[in-house]
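Duplicate of #3305? Posting structure anyway:
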């Protein structure tokens, strides 16, 4: 059986440049709705929203400096919680443009927010809020991010602090009465 492969696997990462401007939000991933992602209603299947957000996360990891070599050395970021809000449907062949903002971070955790837009109309299709934890994969438990990654996260967080906090952040799920 084949495993899930992101479009960025094997691409490494570009060197971090402390003097480079950090976009707010980051625009790192674009794709087209694959025929394999469409469900019986003719739209992007709910599980594939998460697949596309995951590819956006992988683009962010590479921007940050996390790639295959980093994982081979026994560390990675794992998703521990995700909240997806579906806003509009999108069909096979339509373009997707994703953004990512860093909401917060500490020594072990990273809190991010994705937006998925239609690549032509710019209509908001979905959002995903995620909490990630840094893991020592050899020991099987959380571990502190190395200093160089915390430094980069701090720079991204500072650049993203000018963005308004989306109203869906931290919102509990339930039936409102």
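Output from current build:
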């Amino acid at each position: 059986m084949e495993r899930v492969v992101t479009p960025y696997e094997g691409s490494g990462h570009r060197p971090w440049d402390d003097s480079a401007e950090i976009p707010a939000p980051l625009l790192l991933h674009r794709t087209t709705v694959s025929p394999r992602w469409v469900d019986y209603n003719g739209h992007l299947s709910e599980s594939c929203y998460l697949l596309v957000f995951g590819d956006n996360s992988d683009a962010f990891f590479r921007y940050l400096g996390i790639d295959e070599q980093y994982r081979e050395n026994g560390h990675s970021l794992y998703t521990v919680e995700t909240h997806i809000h579906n806003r509009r449907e999108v069909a096979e062949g339509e373009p997707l443009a994703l953004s990512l903002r860093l909401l917060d971070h500490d020594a072990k955790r990273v809190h991010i927010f994705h937006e998925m837009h239609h690549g032509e109309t710019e209509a908001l299709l979905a959002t995903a809020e995620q909490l990630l934890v840094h893991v020592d994969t050899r020991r099987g438990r959380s571990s502190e991010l190395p200093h160089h990654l915390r430094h980069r996260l701090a720079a991204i967080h500072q650049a993203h602090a000018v963005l308004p906090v989306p109203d869906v952040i931290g919102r509990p799920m339930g039936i409102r009465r």
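Confirmed duplicate; merging threads. Helices lie at 46-64, 68-72, 147-160. The longest strand covers residues 124-136.
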